[in-house]
Design brief:
The complex is a heterodimer of chains A (109) and B (115). Chain A is an all-beta fold and 109 residues long. Chain A is built from no helices and 11 strands. Chain A is globular, with a radius of gyration of 13 Å. The chains are: A mainly beta (109), B mainly beta (115).
Chain lengths: 109, 115
């Protein structure tokens, strides 16, 4: 968790609100992946990023390699968005992912 | 959509026993990985492979062996299981770049309890 730091560690949102999750890297990340671990424990791929921004429905993610961070924005949060969000960085040498400790999100009705 | 399967999904083993966790991928990916997930540590890499016949040590390889007999299959072997190896284990596959991304896809996980 030291090389990839996620914040906040936990978050509670009202349905319909917006939020942003952040990852800071102390390694030279070349690509970033964001995952959602659902209550059943499955890891769902959300984004794979080279430096830049991607958007998918209510989710938007940015990876800034020069400033060593990535963000995941959730718009209009829904109950099914609840779970733990992980970011993971790849330094480009061996294709190994280094994971953060996750942000646990609970969306309340 | 990438397809990675793991077996068994749940396993209870005794201390000192041998445990084999299996992973199969139908994506024709060259790279495969074994991670374990523990509270407070996130996911950590145990072993990985660049292709059939290859295995490499990850960040926490002690107490584990790996085997990659084919493109599709990657096994994690605990020769002498210990209670500290109680965890959830995830297998993943990924491609090697070129026209493909390096994106990794994960299996559903295996919950291992060592008594």
């Amino acid at each position: 968790g030291d090389k990839v730091k996620q914040s906040p560690s936990a978050l509670s949102l009202q349905e319909g609100t917006n939020s942003a999750l952040r990852c800071n890297f102390s390694i030279a990340a070349t690509t970033v992946q964001w995952f959602l671990q659902n209550p059943r424990g499955s890891l769902i791929n959300l984004f794979y990023l080279v430096p830049g921004t991607k958007e998918n429905g209510r989710l938007k993610s940015t990876f800034n390699s020069k400033e060593s961070y990535s963000t995941l924005h959730i718009r209009d949060a829904q109950l099914e968005d609840s779970g733990t969000y992980f970011c993971a960085a790849d330094t480009g040498n061996t294709r190994k992912l280094i994971f953060g400790l996750g942000t646990t999100l609970q969306v309340q009705p | 959509e990438a397809a990675v399967t793991q077996s068994p999904r749940n396993k209870v083993a005794v201390t000192g026993g041998k445990v084999t966790l299996s992973c199969n991928q139908t994506n024709n990916h060259n790279n495969m990985y074994w991670y374990r997930q523990d509270t407070g540590h996130g996911l950590r890499l145990i072993h990985y492979s660049y292709g059939a016949g290859s295995t490499e040590k990850g960040d926490i390889p002690d107490g584990y062996k790996a085997s990659r007999p084919s493109q599709e299959n990657f096994s994690l072997i605990l020769e002498l299981a210990t209670p500290s190896q109680t965890s959830v284990y995830f297998c993943a596959s990924g491609d090697v770049g070129g026209r493909s991304s390096y994106e990794q896809y994960f299996g559903p996980g295996t919950r291992l309890t060592v008594l």
